[in-house]
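hey can u run this one w/ NDP bound, need the structure tokens asap thx
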Amino acid sequence: MPIALITGTTAGIGAATAQTLAKNGYDLILNGRRNDRLEEQSRKLTNQYDIQTKIMHIDIRNHEEVEKYIANLSSEWLSIDVLINNAGLAAGLNSIESGSIDHWNRMIDTNIKGLLHMTKYITPILKKTQGHIINIGSIAGKEVYPNGNVYCGTKHMVDALNKAMRTELAQFGIRVTSINPGAVETEFSIVRLDGNTKKAKKVYAGFENLVAQDIADAIWFTINRPKHVNINELIIMPTAQPAAGEIIRNKGL
Ligand code: NDP
Ligand code: 8X3
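ok here u go:
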């Protein structure tokens, strides 16, 4: 059975991707900080599909824990074929002048450093399996919008790292893909707006946003191409979002 390690499976895009890969026969290493959710997800997936799961209850910002966890993987979990760097967040929507340093640190430490920690320690395994790295970027890594400053900056870094990884790893037969979505209704806006669910709901009012399964389907498409085909990157937007920060509302789109 092929094996995928997905970061941030306790919600949103990561959860939908775990479900999709399980359905397609992948054994899964499930990651996140909320262990109750990881345990329930593991139980559900193994009951529903003929697969095995392993829980990686680790904050990816902690490089020592990431290194230790991977160094201690037992032999049956060592042949990881796919790493999906999905865990990430936006925190706040403020000008730089009024931005919170804590918000900036959380985004930089998770979206950039967390992705680097995972990639550093999993790459030696992917060299052996001729595996695939999928980086979840964003339209915010291609464009910028008012008050998106640091989040957009982190996702521009993911875009650059995606290209850098491809340049380094093609010689080992490793595929590298970035998936860059526009507005997907997940827990993303609740996290960004510090738990204000009412305000978060408004982000998706009056237009048809993407759902996590739209992105999981695209991820599966890139994995499921023949080995000689690398999808370098995809930008996936709601029809009603022609550009970052621009949404056509109340038009039935
Ligand atoms: P969610 O908030 O629904 O899910 C985020 C996931 O990341 C959760 O499982 C969370 O788990 C995990 N996570 C966050 N921080 C850490 C950490 N330090 N260590 C381990 N896991 C962590 O958001 P989405 O599903 O929408 O986001 C997934 C990715 O997609 C992110 O990289 C985001 O930037 C990107 N994206 C999202 C878009 C959107 O509109 N929703 C659009 C474009 C890109 P836990 O809290 O349990 O740790
Ligand atoms: C999330 C999409 O447009 O809110 O990465 O930045 S957006």
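The pocket of 2-hydroxyethylsulfonic acid (ligand 2) is lined by residues 138-140, 148, 182-183, 244 (CB under 6 Å). anyway lmk if its weird
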